[in-house]
Structure prediction request, 68 residues.
Amino acid sequence: MSYTRFEDLPVWKDAARLFVGVCELTDRAEARRKGDWADQLERASLSISNNIAEGFELGTTDQLLRFL
Prediction:
């Protein structure tokens, strides 16, 4: 199967769902009391989908695999 948009990649969709789940978790008051922990967890989970998108946009399978 050939993909023309990174948003269509199943792995990107999973990463986006992970980020939403992490945000739901860190929005809880008890998570926010942990200070920078919640922010760091959100940024780390967001970087997964960002890296997949960046690798895809480079245009080659080898580049995408490197970013994965």
